Amino acid sequence: MTWALWESYMLPGVWITVQVTVYSAALAAAVAFVVGVARTSRLWIVRFLSGAYFEIFRGASALVFMFWLFFALPLALGWQLVPMWAGVLALGLTYGAYGSEVVRGALAAVSPAQREAGIALSFTRWQRLRRIELPQAWPEMVPPFNNLAIELLKGTALVSVISVADMTFAANLIRFTTNDSAPIYTLLLLMYFVLAFAITRGMRLVERKAKAGIGQAPPPRRGLFAGLSRRTSATDPVTGAATPGGAR
Amino acid sequence: MSADTIHKNPTADGRELIRFDKVTKRFGDHVVLDQLEFDVSAGKHVTLIGPSGSGKTTILRLLMTLLKPDEGTISVDGDYLTHQEKGDRLVPAGEKHVREVRKKIGMVFQQFNLFPNMKVLRNVTEAPIHVLGMGKEEAEQRARELLEMVGLTEHLDKYPSQLSGGQQQRVAIARALAMRPQVLLLDEVTSALDPELVAGVLDVLRDIAHTTDITMLCVTHEMNFARDISDEVLMFNEGKVIESGPPEKIFNDPDHERTREFLGAIL
Amino acid sequence: MNWNWEVVSDFMPRFWDGVLLTLQALVLGSLLAFTLGLVWAIAQRSARAWIRVPVTAVTEFVRNTPLLVQLFFLFYVVPEWGPSMSPLATGVIGLGLHYSTYTAEVYRAGIDGVPRGQWEAATALSLPPTRTWGAVILPQAIRRVVPVLGNYVIAMLKDSPLIAIIGALEMLGEARAYGAETFRFLEPITVVGIAFIVIAYPASLLIRALERRLVR
Fold first, then answer.
1. Does A175 touch chain C (CB under 8 A)?
2. Could you read off the pLDDT of C124-153 as tens digits, one per residue?
3. Hey, are the CB atoms on B130 and A123 less than 8 Å from each other?
4. Which domain range does residue B57 map to?
5. Number of folded domains that form chain B
6. Considering the domain boundaries, does residue A143 fall inside one?
7. Is residue B22 in a domain?
């Protein structure tokens, strides 16, 4: 692998991966909050629709959905999504569904007494949500969001399959050119690992801030690699949502 | 402490502020309140006593609209709480009506229920600003006065988790009063506190009872406190008021056998 | 919309071939993930640092990097060193290895959940380590984590289309190949997409039912 190949393919690829991650994460976060809050609605139709969204996207495979957006949908609509946006849409909508479970779970974990105190002070439902329930639920959401963000970063490698020139796509191109597969893929894996590490460090800062914002001490760190992945037993593998005791 | 910081009731003339009219509340087959009738006059301090499960807390939760009555109506200051008059019929009230009527009521909970994500001062100012539409400066000014009244001036910048139970409960009292309610509901406000912290909270409430004309409706097991502040004590049993009267009468010379038993068991 | 049912029926035989391969990959991948995960979990509890530290490092690395890139690595790099493998074998190893790093965490949590007194009782009875693990700790730990493991089977199902990219024609691979031959993508990919939801939803209901029975 030469510097020229590195410069002309890999560096832009890193930038594309970062962009896809950031855009998909933003879309996923928006979907997660809207759908997650909708799933706690008093209106059954809102609960039903948002619940259906969650179940469908939880069952769907992100890659199949991306293929569908890229290959099938243009045939139905007559126009083509830009590949990168097909990827962002598929990742954002899928991981948003997982995120909605995190939001719903964290809201459900806010003590009912807090809701009652809000009612007693005559807050509207929306005010209770915005001023009392979401701020208290937020610190609980950060660790599972971290897990989801890393899953999302890993998921961005899929966009290479629909010809978006991300890091993985660049690595494949370089392999075609040089046939030097071992160093290229080793380096690629390391680069993803470094990005995952950066996300985790960032999220730990967010978590510390969130906890301090409600007068709690940050959680203690443990072990050599503890900083990287905070996945624990009580975490739903598919959604990353906290599920105390493993049951839901 | 000045009485002005708390709602000054212009017509504390003994009119009915709270009225329960044939209120029934069931949980499944269990009838908690059975055609309950009672009223509380403006400015009075009324204490509900009775064995647990007799429906005292249900009354407070109905007033807080955390529960809805199965039958009957509740009025607050002449307005129906959970109903609206439509022509000559009563229909269930919309959220907005309920909120308007409920603004006249403040509540202090057994478990304080302070908002852990807000510092002490903001716990007290949040609702006046966002529910009553009060300006930030005015709300903070009033909150400072109220927090001074409950003796917490040094703790404005702390989170609830950094305070003792007694301090948290005093913040909760200030928070309820900041809404200028006409009625203050007190639900077992000392029973979650360590014994040595009870006196401080009761002193604050006694002060408020003696120096203001706010109406109070308390559920408590602190009989000394009930005796000290109440104008009237209602004895509950199985969803009904079986006896009522001034505290001297109820505590010293109750008419009802069940009341004697109950007082004998807890005093 | 130009949906054509004839295309669907034309695609169906290949769809079923794809389902078969998906299930093969899923079953074999799950078995590998469950077994390897247990090995990692026990190794991570080892008192010997030279076992514990590298195993922890490798599982963290594998879990935090994309399965797709790992598949490329297995498919293009490993044959340079040893025998080349079929796409399906590569896919099974890739899925199994990747998900073993998740199941390791699940087992670890299950093992952590076994009360301390059980370890102490085993020590008091002087049970050898193999009996302590095999007869006391693991039976209690695994029972509690079966539903969580089940969730990973569903997650693996949703990642199984990745093996199409290295040439194993599971459901998505069949759909893509069919589309490339006939220029009809809408129907086959839609069928495959629906198939995933149709398989995954009842499976997740089943796991929730299992959770209620086993975890308490």
1. yes
2. 888 888 888 888 888 888 888 888 888 898
3. yes
4. 3-12+42-67+103-266
5. 1
6. yes
7. no
Q: Is the pLDDT of residue B12 over 60?
A: no
- Describe chain A by its helix, strand, coil percentages, rounded to 5: 75, 0, 25
Task: Establish if B23 belongs to a structural domain.
Answer: no
Q: Do chains A and B touch (3 or more CB pairs under 8 A)?
A: yes
Rounded to whole angstroms, how far apart are CA atoms C91 and C160? 8
Residue C46 has what DSSP assignment?
-
Residue A201 lies in a domain: yes
User: Distance between CA atoms of A102 and A105, rounded to whole angstroms?
Assistant: 5
Asked whether residue A121 is domain-assigned, the answer is: yes
What is the set of domains in chain C, with CATH numbers?
A: 21-172 (1.10.3720.10)
CB contact under 8 A, C211 and A247: yes
Q: Is B93 among the domain residues?
A: no
Residues of A with CB under 8 A from a CB of B: 111, 113-114, 116-117, 119-125, 127, 131-132, 135-136, 213-216
- Beta-carbon separation of A60 and C197 below 8 A: yes
The model's pTM: 0.81
A88 in any annotated domain: yes
Which positions in chain A touch C215 (Cβ < 8 Å)? 245-247
Restricting to B residues 48-107, those with a Cβ less than 8 Å away from any Cβ of A are: 64-66, 95, 99, 102-103, 105-107
User: What CATH number is attached to the domain comprising A196?
Assistant: 1.10.3720.10
The total of structural domains in chain A comes to 1
Q: Which residues of A touch B175 (CB under 8 A)?
A: 121
User: At CB < 8 A and 24+ separation, what contacts does C81-84 make?
Assistant: none
Which domain range does residue A123 map to? Answer: 3-242
What gap in Å lies between CA C205 and CA C96, rounded to an integer? Answer: 23
**Tens digit of each residue's pLDDT, chain A (248 residues):** 567 777 888 889 999 999 999 999 999 999 999 999 999 998 999 999 999 999 888 888 888 888 888 888 887 777 778 889 999 999 999 999 999 999 999 999 999 999 999 999 989 999 999 999 999 999 999 999 999 999 999 999 999 988 899 999 999 888 888 878 888 999 999 999 999 999 999 999 998 888 887 766 555 544 444 444 444 433 444 444 333 333 32
Residues of A in contact with C80 (CB under 8 A): 181-182
User: Are A and C neighbours with ≥3 CB pairs closer than 8 A?
Assistant: yes
Taking Cα atoms as reference points, which of C100, C65, C71 lies closest to residue A189?
C65
Domain CATH code at residue B234: 3.40.50.300
B114 belongs to a structural domain: yes
Q: Which residues of A176-209 are buried (b: 16+ CB within 10 A; e: fewer)?
A: eeeeebeebbeebbebbbebbbebbeebbebbbe
Which of B95, B111, B162 minimises the CB distance to A215?
B162
* Cα dist from C5 to A69, B84, C12, C148, C190, whole Å: 20, 57, 11, 39, 12
Q: Is B129 near chain A, with CB under 8 Å?
A: no
